[in-house]
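Weekly modeling sync, notes
Attendees: S.R. (lead), two postdocs, one rotation student

Agenda item 3: backlog of single-chain predictions. S.R. asked that every request posted to the team notebook include the full sequence so nobody has to chase files. The rotation student volunteered to paste the first one in as an example of the format we agreed on. Action items at the bottom.

Example entry:
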Amino acid sequence: MGQNKAVVMHPADNVATAVVDLTAGSEVCLILNGEEKAVLLKDNIPFGHKFALNNIALAARVMKYGESIGAASRGIEEGEHVHIHNMVGLRGRGDLKM
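Predicted structure, as returned to the notebook:
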């Protein structure tokens, strides 16, 4: 399996966090719920940033640590960088109805 390039914090998570800088077009292999999963990256993923483990629909919750950390502000494809350009934080937000 080689060096760990990303971590998944909880079985309910739909994102992984890069523990090294990752390059678009590379494949990252992870163990999810006891099974190996390979994710082909669509974007460069900087150290500490997230990428989608599967497709995340518009307004679906982005899950990290087994908790919702926000919602997709557009559809996000597996392997895409997940950050402020496609995810919105929901905590303390009374102005959004997502």
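Discussion: group reviewed the output briefly. The chain is about 0% helix and 35% strand.
Action items: rotation student to repeat for the remaining queue; S.R. to check formatting next week.
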